[in-house]
From TrEMBL:
<dbReference type="InterPro" id="IPR016163">
    <property type="entry name" value="Ald_DH_C"/>
</dbReference>
<protein>
    <recommendedName>
        <fullName>methylmalonate-semialdehyde dehydrogenase (CoA acylating)</fullName>
        <ecNumber>1.2.1.27</ecNumber>
    </recommendedName>
</protein>
<keyword id="KW-0560">Oxidoreductase</keyword>
<dbReference type="Pfam" id="PF00171">
    <property type="entry name" value="Aldedh"/>
</dbReference>
<dbReference type="InterPro" id="IPR016161">
    <property type="entry name" value="Ald_DH/histidinol_DH"/>
</dbReference>
<dbReference type="GO" id="GO:0006574">
    <property type="term" value="P:L-valine catabolic process"/>
</dbReference>
<dbReference type="GO" id="GO:0006210">
    <property type="term" value="P:thymine catabolic process"/>
</dbReference>
<dbReference type="InterPro" id="IPR010061">
    <property type="entry name" value="MeMal-semiAld_DH"/>
</dbReference>
<dbReference type="GO" id="GO:0004491">
    <property type="term" value="F:methylmalonate-semialdehyde dehydrogenase (acylating, NAD) activity"/>
</dbReference>
<dbReference type="InterPro" id="IPR016160">
    <property type="entry name" value="Ald_DH_CS_CYS"/>
</dbReference>
<dbReference type="InterPro" id="IPR015590">
    <property type="entry name" value="Aldehyde_DH_dom"/>
</dbReference>
<dbReference type="InterPro" id="IPR016162">
    <property type="entry name" value="Ald_DH_N"/>
</dbReference>
<keyword id="KW-0520">NAD</keyword>
<comment type="similarity">
    <text>Belongs to the aldehyde dehydrogenase family.</text>
</comment>
<feature type="domain" description="Aldehyde dehydrogenase">
    <location>
        <begin position="23"/>
        <end position="487"/>
    </location>
</feature>
Length: 508
């Protein structure tokens, strides 16, 4: 991360805040460069908003809520329909910006956008998603029904690794439920997020319903402690997610924190060998390993340990290059700091006795010599007390462990504190059923390496990967972004018989 900059030091684009429907130039004195990770070119400069600017964004959202909450569901749905059409129309343009600021390949950038687009499409189903319940005549002439009502101003704090998908997990579902929203994108790559925000305004989101502030810890803390914010969605590191959950909860807010991971793929020897190896390599090294659902651990069971040379061969064939270049499989990691951290963990693995099967530390990319590149890296002989196993590397590093039985593999995965995702590769239905029943992980793939559910369901990471009981998008997030009001009603005819005073708690 670069040191704070003066806004006048160079003539590059200055990212604006969005407050009450207006693009606002921040009055902050703290700015950071947005850097292309393949070239180190400064693409733009992002402000770290002042507390007063955060307050202004929240105040705009609070004012807008008074009318937006009463906007008919059909009108909200039509905005989502328009937004999904606009995102489809502009996907390639957004993907180019995303690739330049984050480093992903263009194909992966389009995938990032598409997985968020699916949530926008699902948000257009809010007419059925937000339905309450009704029970007639629960007692003598008494009906009971529930209403799902918006809760107010909500906020989202999003990470650098999915600057399109994760903001689209958050603000469309929040506002289609009748809430207003304050979004804080990652300060490392907010440009593609801002393009999506522009499209939301074009789709008809009214002034104040969606607001954007930028910044670091000061802005995060201002969001977590603001009295008018009712709920916070967070995706990012375990350290920051725990802080957001604790601080927000202490100030009376609903908080969902999706955090770090160490995702295992358990490989049985009866699995389809070619498909499994391709799936492992793609899930481990795609997006340069910068996915919270990346497969970072392969558990080879029994004779599947003989597949290690094939895994190494497949990984060694991946092309490392800038994300904008055709045929690229692995782009750069997001920053120099991220690269240093990944290299440090690779060094720790060597020092702690793991065998470095494939070394990506010294990869050279002609024409992009200043890029933050780390090539596919593979370790074998890893033990569960090594740092390359205990820590989320968030880089293109796959570690392998070997066990003799499926029971040992299940015990190994369950002993890890994280619980985001896991996969089993097998052709045995019995093994798959045993695995999905006994594994203590929130999201399970059977011959699927990255089991992120479609938006009809919800993201259900668990244990050390999640704080809060409701996940983002899908059915669970409708619960998160609404409050249930239960109404118990009895209506009397003018000539109804007076039963007299009832001093008991029961309904008659």
């Amino acid at each position: 991360m670069n040191a704070p900059q003066s806004p006048n030091s160079t003539k590059v684009e200055q990212v604006k805040l969005l407050i009450d429907g207006q693009w606002v130039e921040s009055k902050t004195t703290e700015w950071r460069d947005i850097v292309n990770p393949a070239t180190q070119e400064v693409l733009a400069r992002v402000p770290f908003a002042t507390v007063e600017e955060v307050d202004a964004a929240v105040a705009a959202a609070q004012r807008a809520f008074q009318t937006w909450r009463n906007t008919p569901i059909g009108a909200r749905m039509r905005i989502m329909l328009k937004l999904q059409a606009l995102i489809r129309e502009h996907t390639k343009r957004i993907a180019q910006v995303l690739s330049a600021e984050q480093g992903k390949t263009l194909a992966d950038a389009e995938g990032d956008i598409f997985r968020g687009l699916e949530v926008v499409e699902h948000a257009a189903s809010i007419g059925t998603l937000q339905m309450g319940e009704f029970a007639e005549n629960v007692a003598g002439g008494v009906d009971t029904y529930t209403l799902r009502q918006p809760i107010g101003v909500c906020a989202g704090i999003t990470p650098f690794n999915f600057p399109a998908m994760i903001p689209l997990w958050m603000f469309p579902m929040a506002i289609v439920c009748g809430n207003t929203f304050v979004l804080k994108p990652s300060e490392q790559d907010p440009l593609s997020t801002m393009l999506l925000v522009e499209l939301a305004l074009e789709a008809g989101v009214p002034a104040g319903v969606l607001n954007v502030v930028h910044g670091g810890k000061q802005v995060v803390d201002a969001i977590c402690t603001h009295q008018d914010i009712k709920a916070i969605s967070f995706v990012g590191s375990t350290e920051v997610g725990t802080h957001v959950y604790n601080l927000g909860s202490q100030h009376g807010k609903r908080v969902q924190s999706m955090m770090g991971a160490k995702n295992h793929a358990v490989v049985l020897p009866d699995a389809n060998r070619t498909q499994t190896i391709n799936a492992l390599v793609g899930a481990a090294f795609g997006a340069a390993g910068q996915r919270c659902m990346a497969t970072s651990v392969a558990v080879l069971v029994g004779k599947a340990r003989e597949w290690l040379p094939d895994i190494k061969e497949a990984a060694s064939k991946l092309k490392v290059n800038a994300g904008c270049e055709p045929g690229t499989d692995v782009g750069p990691v997001v920053s120099k700091r991220a690269k240093e951290r990944v290299l440090g963990l690779i060094e720790s693995g060597i020092k702690e006795g793991a065998k470095l099967e494939l070394d990506g530390r010294d990869v050279k990319v002609p024409g992009y010599e200043q890029g933050n590149f780390v090539g596919p890296t593979l370790f074998s002989g890893v033990k569960t007390d090594m740092q390359v196993y205990t820590q989320e590397i968030f880089g293109p590093v796959l570690v392998t462990l070997e066990v003799d039985t499926l029971d040992e593999a299940i015990a190994l995965v369950n002993a890890n504190p994280f619980g985001n995702g896991t996969g089993l590769f097998t052709q045995s239905g019995a093994a798959a059923r045993k695995f999905q029943s006994e594994i203590d992980i929130g999201q399970v793939g059977i011959n699927i390496p990255i089991p992120v559910p479609v938006p009809f369901f919800s993201f259900t990471g668990s244990r050390g990967s999640k704080l809060g009981d409701l996940g983002p998008y899908g059915k669970q997030v409708v619960q998160f972004y609404t409050q249930t009001k239960t109404v118990t009603a009895r209506w009397f005819d003018d000539d109804s018989v007076n039963d007299g005073v009832n001093t008991t708690i029961s309904l008659r």
